Structure formats: C-alpha cells, structure tokens
What we know:
This protein is mainly α.
Amino acid sequence: FSALCYAEFAARVPIAGSAYTYAYTTVVAWIIGWNLVLEYTIGAATVARGWSGYLVQLLKGFGVTYPEVLYNVVVENPYMDLNIDITAATSIVVITIILAVGVKESTRFNMIVVIITMGVIAFIIVAGFYLGTFDNWDPFFPLAFLVCSEEVLQYFFYVGFDAVATAAEEAKNPKRDLPIGILASLTVSTILYVLVTAVLTMMIPYYMIDNNSPLAAAFAFYDLGWAQILVAFGAFAALLPASSGIFCHNLAFSSVWPGGLLFSWFAQIHPKFQTPMNATLTTGAASALMALLLDIETLADMVSIGTLLAFTIVCSAVLTIRYTSKQRPYQSATFIVLFILAVSIAAFLVVFQVHWFFWSIFAVLALIPAALLFLQETVNIPENFATPLVPAVPLLGITFNVFMMANLGYATWIRLVIWLVIGVLFYFLYSIRKSKLAQPITDEATVDDTEEIELEELPKDSI
C-alpha cells in the first residue's frame, strides 16, 4: 500500500527528498526530513553490522579465526548493554572517506555485484529446499504472540524503495522510471525475502538462527564449508556497496538545506572534490558511532520505526492532496488526523492485550472519518501514475503501518521520541526563522550567496 502511494508522489514530484518533499508543509516536512536523516544514518550502520558478521563467516570458511575483540565485545551497563563492533565502524569510516573525496562508483562493478548476489540467492533457495525439511515448520507458529512484533523487522528490507524515491534526480525520466523502479523493487524484494526466509527456517530450527550471519551459518550447520564460503562471499559482496547508503544522506540533506532549515555549513561543497564534505563526514561519523556501539537488532528496530513513520506520512499526504480543494481546505486533513488517532489507540490497546471490547470501540470510531473520506469528491488526480482505489489503499497503508509501529518495543519508541523532540526544538529555535519560505519576496535577492544553495550544486557524479 505504501509503495503505491510513494509511486504516485514520485511521479508527481520527481525530485530528491522522498517523503520530505512529498509532505512539504513546514514543520511536518521538517520532522520527516529529520527522521530521514536518522533513518539513513542507522540504515548504513545496520548494513555495516551485517557486513561485519559475514566477514567473520567468510574467514571462518577459509579456516581463519577472526579476533572476537574486533567484532563482538559486550559492555554491560544499567541503562543499555553495548555491543562493540570495531570492524563495522571501520567499514563505515572507509565508505565515508570514499564518498567524501568523490570517488565515482563503477556501474560495471555494481552490475557484477548484482549478478553475483542474484546467483548466490538462487543457490541458497535451491540448496535450501534440497537440504531443508518441513519438520522444522512444525509447529508453524511456535511463538505466535511474537509474530507481529518480529514481522516489523521486515520493513527494514523495504527501505530500498524509499531510497529510490530519495535519489529521484538521478533518473533520466523520473516521472516514468520512478513508479516502475519503486514497484519493481518492492515486488522483487518481497519474493526473494519470502523464499530465502522459507528455506532458512527449513534448514535449521528458528531458535538456532544466527542473527549476524544467518545464511552462511545455516550451511555451516550442515558442514558444507564450500557452501558457507560461497554464501558468505555473496553476502559480503552485496553488503559492501550497500553500505554506501550514506549517499542517501547527501540527497536528504540536499532537499532540506535549500529551504534554509539546516545550517548552511552542511551545504558547503568542497572546492576540489565537489562533494558536500561536511554533510558526508558528519553523517558518516554518526553512522560509524552507531555501528560501533549498538547491536544489529536495536539498529533494525530504529530503521523500521523510522521507515514506518515515513510510510504513514506519505499515505496521509496522498489522501490530503486528493481530497483538498479551495472549498474545503481543512476538511480532509481533519478526517485523516481523526482516523490516525483512532487507529493508533486501537493498535496500542491490541498490543497491550486489552479486552477486545475497548479496542473495538476505537476501531469502529476509525471507520467514521474513513467513511466520510469515501463520500468526498476526488480531486488532483495525477496523469502519469495514480494510486489505485483511493482512499482505500492509503487508509489501509496507514492502518498496517501504525499497527506495526505499535508492536515495536518501548525502548525504540523512547529513542524515536527523543530524536523527534530534538528535531522540533531545533526547528522552532532555528529553522523557522531561517526558512526561505518565511523570507519576504522581493525583486532583488536578499539571501546571502553562501546560503543560496541550488540542488544542481550537488554533482550527480560525486560518488
């Protein structure tokens, strides 16, 4: 549902920024942009953690023991245990330096990596079905009460189509290519995700899965050293370019700083390398710190809640633009807010296992604004690509996203709330006064040249 909404906005607004651009309404847009920065920062750290785990498995397949002190040191404290991974942090530092100096990624290299990855995935699926047994699926839901909370983690695998939208300006024909790219990436990733997780749980019992390098460890369980090396190499190769997701930081920043909402210091382009050096180094340092200290489960939870929040905003934005007119400027927004509020309360009551009578009340209340939206006349239908079955698809997207967010742990919510509070304070103390939208329109430029940043100043070949 969310991908269909993203596809419509990608066709409507084919410029960098993803959900930030799609929801550009002052403080709402700022919250999304602030959230996207965190999302991509943590996403790069999460990928680095996975890269570190598969490096260990790859070396183990060759009989080399990688020092545990370099990737797995647990530090206990009263507030939150830390899991030190020097290898993951180092990989982020290397990628950051490469992006900062503007080394151009090779299209041929990326194509080779994709071919290797798809070949390894095909091998995993075929070999997994051959080696596995359906006995490991009995019982099929051994921890049924945890299914929803664990299912939230799958949203981390779908952050890719958000990255496609973020890199909109890299497409030759974005109005045509972006909807195709978003929906195609969603379809392919879903099919592969289902097949790989199916064979993984067939190969070994769910409670024996290695969270850091599950696929390579599964073949090691069968004493297939050569297969372990092949799978570890494929995953290692695939995660190496994926860890350069810091590139999305630059695109997110390039969408925020033209509006004056961030310090102009982030927008400064290095005179020699022609890259946003300050933004790249800052976000790279933050990613490296998170990869160094936080375990992969904590990082994945944070990426998931950030992704779900962005999805919810985009679904809401589709409804807003489709049902807002000069005659009723605030009516649709009111219905959407009431729907989200009712659905959120119902979702949390379900998660906390409150009696069905109470959450059903709010579920029924959510149907009222939904029904009122169905009765409204649709306007602003795009010509290139339109989300089908509006308002049903966006409303279902909001419902599922909110319910999944409610299943995340309280610690994840606390971290998100702290980050958003910092962002809101920054907005009202700095951004709202510096915003270009808040400046009076005059015939002559009134903004300092060092702060007037055009999107074109970020070279498209800067990586």
